[in-house]
Amino acid sequence: MSYILNYYISNLDSIIINDINYNSMLKNWISSDKRIKASLLYRLSRDCPEISTFHRLCDNKGSTLTLFYLTNQSKVGFFAKESFDTNSGWKIDQCCFLFNLNQKQKYGKLKSDNIDNMDKSFYCANNCWPSANGLGCNLNTNLKHIYHSLEIDYIDKVFNNGSKILPSKKGKENEYEVIETEIFQIIIY
After folding, report:
1. Residue 10 exposure: Cα atoms within 13 Å on the Cβ side
2. What is the CA radius of gyration of the chain?
3. Model confidence over 120-140: pLDDT tens digits?
């Protein structure tokens, strides 16, 4: 049993991640040498699609894994080691990364001495859904759409090739329709 726990995220009760290979990829991207346990905090199809519900269920929970399943069949998201909350603005999180499971690609945070770059991992506000730099929901919108901001000069300064996570038109904020969203608390031990 401990052999299996070293290769997969345990308790990943996901509708989106229905492939053991995706589970294994995520586990290795988060921490290849430690055990990881997941606990479902929020699921769009189960929970109220209101920002206040997201914050009530997901704030101050530590590390999280946010998954979006889109109508174009893409399975994308982001991992953040820092907690969601209602009033931080941009969070500093050098462990944060974006991913596209269909591409089998992780877009890691670039290392930088530039504080402006380090400050822009993901955004927290009382009127904001989960949003990493260049991928997520806009302020005061519902969780039926996410946006991929393709200001390449900006997103690619934060995440290594982050502009390639979804097919998008340069210089535009591209909208994608969401089928399902899940947010998991991630415990690394």
Report:
1. 13
2. 15
3. 788 888 888 888 887 887 665
CA 163 → CA 31, 108, 170, 174, 183, distances in Å? 24, 12, 9, 11, 22
Secondary structure (H, E, C), the chain: CHHHHCCCEECCCCCCCCCHHHHHHHHHHHCCCCCEEEEEEEECCCCCCCHHHHHHHHECCCCEEEEEEECCCCEEEEEECCCECCCCEEECCCCCEEEECCCCEEEEECCCCCHHHHCCCEEECCCECCEECCEECCECCCCCEEEEECCHHHHHHHECCHHHCCCCCCCCEEEEEEEEEEEEEEEEC
> Which residues lie closer than 8 Å to 64 by C-beta, 6 or more apart?
41, 58, 79, 80, 83, 84, 130, 183, 184, 185, 186
What are the structure tokens assigned to 71, written together?
A: 């109508």
Residue with tokens 């500093």: 92
- The answer to pTM > 0.85 is yes
Q: What is the pLDDT of residues 68-89, one digit of tens each?
A: 999 999 999 999 999 999 887 8
